[in-house]
Write a structure and sequence with these properties.
single chain, alpha/beta, Rossmann fold, two-stranded antiparallel sheet, 9 strands, about 25% helix, binds S-adenosyl-L-homocysteine
């Protein structure tokens, strides 16, 4: 797939970030995806100098674009091969959705704040990203209309996994996201023939998954 980047990044910023990520992430498809998605396009104008630093950055509405390392680890844990249908909860800037879109067939991404979703839509359209569908609403209910999903990515901290999300996983599907409980950790769920199996991974720090309007 052709990279979405239109011009080269100055000063080896991408290479410096990659060197950092290679210590923790092995999947070459995931490392390639991070190089191909121009993170600077998802970051506010006054934070351009930090766009390729391995840090979370504010994107407005009190929200943040996730740290590249965490985006990469979550993509790696989802074991995407290219054919998957993915649900992404917490669009934010749209960056994580764009990385997922390089690794899977189609991404449905749900965001609670319409203004963030609208900005993400502009960014993705400007980059020509055609395999992401943006939705506004409470992502903790998932998006049943397109279920089941091969992978569910949750980019906001859950107080326990909302039951609607694993319920929308296909057989063999994976869900990854941060779960609060004493500390905040990435949790991976796998839906197998015998039910849902849970693995706990590293500590992370995400903004909370906000309860939605509770309707339907
Ligand atoms: N993935 C984003 C960063 C996620 S920050 C990126 O790449 O930039 C978490 C996001 O989850 C925020 O944008 C927040 O508004 C959104 N969010 C919080 N609760 C939500 C809910 N219940 N449903 C959908 N989105 C939610």
């Amino acid at each position: 797939m052709r990279p979405w980047r239109s011009r080269p990044e100055p000063e080896g910023r991408v290479e410096r970030l990659l060197a950092d990520l290679r210590i923790h992430v092995e999947d070459p498809r995931v490392l390639a995806a991070i190089c191909e998605v121009p993170r600077e396009r998802f970051v506010p104008a006054d934070l351009q100098a930090e766009a390729w630093d391995n840090v979370a950055l504010p994107i407005g509405s009190g929200q943040t674009i996730s740290q590249p390392l965490v985006v990469e680890r979550m993509c790696e844990l989802l074991e995407l091969r290219g054919h998957e249908r993915v649900l992404d909860v917490g669009t934010g800037s749209g960056y994580h959705a764009a990385v997922l879109a390089r690794l899977a067939a189609h991404v449905w991404s749900v965001e609670l704040h319409p203004e963030l979703s609208a900005r993400a839509a502009e960014t993705l359209a400007a980059l020509g990203v055609a395999n992401v569908t943006l939705l506004t609403g409470d992502g903790s209910r998932g998006h049943p209309a397109e279920a089941p999903y091969d992978a569910v990515n949750v980019a906001a901290a859950m107080q326990g996994i909302p039951p609607a999300l694993p319920a929308q996983l296909a057989e063999g599907g994976r869900l990854v996201g941060p779960v609060n409980g004493g500390d905040q950790r990435l949790v991976l769920l796998r839906r197998g023939p015998g039910g849902v199996r849970e693995e706990r991974h590293e500590r992370v720090r995400f903004v909370p998954l906000v309860p939605g309007d509770g309707a339907g």
